[in-house]
């Protein structure tokens, strides 16, 4: 969907979190910014809820009983028709929300298919903006996620199996660095003399690499390195 | 072993109630579920055919089989009358405490077959000079195994029976070392004598088959008990580790989280105090949960750990949240120390003057340099027109890193926040210091 369509109808959001306190907190913070069309407390409940409510974006907690966010994302995406054609709008997009700082949590939920990762300390306005971005098909990188990715892709592998997927370009690295330093996309664009759209393209491409790269460092790194 | 165990009636033991000699046939019949009279008839017939073999087997069984239940002894008198048996071994421990097992029958049959094979060969092909030491060796093994092997649960043997059984147990205990020693030396002597007597190597090959069957039987008999013992020990260990971990979690939650929650409730009116209490607890819990022990410990000094410590301190003093993203790490050297000190000043500045409650900090360690960024979205200032007091601070920041060949840059504009960029070159270090 393009920019003008997005303005017309508010983004439909579904919140999945096992803590009722968080669910109601997120709901009230998003009040008036997006439409919260449903909430769920575990994976099973979320699966039926998402099918019924057809949200644009699902906010998903990383840790939940009955399988975490990664599990939910995998099952929804597996059940959904292929992304091509008219059905595209029916497949919700996922944004992970968590208090966890464990690198493997972050990487696993992104690799399952989440379009972004935010920590729960994020403000309501930032969250709403991120939801809009994810709904439009872009990626949302918090400073911490950017740091994780830089760390994961740091150094060079002797023989990358797929150079296109296994390495970041210099430009992508620049963008990620600025995000890790706390810059918003708009600020990144101004700093690097790029359009916001270009910044979004770079970030989406990094996300794709993160999801598709077979780089074994990614998984090894995630288990070895437990950043605080 | 214990008679209180309902399974013990069908377990392979010697039964002294209604025994003729040592209760071997009696126990065997009970374990196999055949009438004792029939078994005895078979044994007598066999003995008529080959008395030495049957006698040896009987002696073996005597030595190997634990003395078993005088079946109908009630639980009461057993527990009361047998102090030695009071401490019943946990179920599944040792040979004596084993429940009935079909393997037992197989094992006994294997031992019988092996022994008959062995004896048949010896009596047919060998003079008595070889048979005698061999018999000696086997009986020795039986003694050593039957008495020594059950030493651990031995205290419980006969415990369920009666005071008399306890007395027997006591005597067994007293004699155990002696019996085991005798058994071991018999094995040794018998083995040496057999080897000396067997000059013909072909014979060793033949008797090896019998010996193998015998060994297999012994393994079958012993194996399950040993395996169970090992499993029990592993279970126990796992259980202990788990409960220790639980205790540690409980202690941590109590010391840290509960105390903080209590403090927060008491000071609910004080916005700033509540926030800083919560933040401090969050930080601590995160280090504990995700730190994996390698972070925050005073032991290893790296740029990242030092920076984290300094930032924590600034957070505590000013109640500002410092969101730090750290990429890579390096051993601490003078340049790193200067960088962190300058970074601390920058963070203090932002906390004091920017008028925001969040400051972003980013550390990146690259092969040739370490960079540190401190950024706020506060009120900002015009770097060209800084009041002298702040210029002084800025100077002290940049002087610190310049001394180590680094650079410092301050970017800011009124209303647009500020960012301090610090960078020092890394000393050419050995390759091992940088694994990635």
How far is it from the N-terminal to the C-terminal residue of chain A, by CA?
38 Å
Low-confidence stretches of chain B: 1-10, 70-101, 148-169, 293-297, 430-436
| Total count of helical runs of at least 4 residues of chain B | 12
State the strand order across the main sheet of chain A.
2-1-3-4-5-6
As a percent range, the share of helical residues of chain A equals 40-55%
Q: What would you call the shape of chain B?
A: elongated
Average pLDDT figure of chain A: 80
Number of helices of chain A: 12
Q: How much helical structure, as a percent, in the residues of chain B?
A: 55-70%
- As laid out across the biggest beta sheet of chain B, the strand order is 1-2-3-5-4
Outline the low-pLDDT stretches of chain A: 1-7, 83-88
Biggest sheet details of chain A: 6 strands, parallel
Classify the oligomer.
Answer: heterodimer
Q: What's the number of extended β-strand segments of chain A?
A: 6
Largest sheet of chain B: 5 strands, mixed
What is the CA-based Rg of chain A, rounded? 17 Å
Largest interface: chains, residues each: A-B, 20 and 24 residues
End-to-end Cα distance of chain B:
60 Å
Task: State the shape of chain A.
Answer: globular
Strand content of chain A: 5-15%
Order of helices and strands of chain A: HEHEHEHEHEHEHHHHHH
For the structure shown, list the relevant keywords:
heterodimer; A: 228 residues; alpha/beta; 6-stranded parallel β-sheet; 12 helices; 12% strand; B: alpha+beta; 5-stranded mixed β-sheet; 5 strands; disordered N terminus; disordered C terminus
Give an account of the 3D structure.
The complex is a heterodimer of chains A (228) and B (436). Helices cover 53% and strands 12% of the residues of chain A. Chain A is built from twelve helices and six strands. In chain A, strand 5 (116-119), helix 6 and strand 6 (140-141) form a beta-alpha-beta unit. The longest helix of chain A has 17 residues, at 196-212. By secondary structure, chain B is α+β, with helices and mostly antiparallel strands. In chain B, 60% of the residues lie in helices and 8% in strands. Chain B contains twelve helices and five strands. In chain B, strands 1-2-3-5-4 form a five-stranded mixed beta sheet, covered by helices on one side. The chains are: A alpha/beta (228), B alpha+beta (436). The interface between A and B is medium-sized, with 20 and 24 residues.
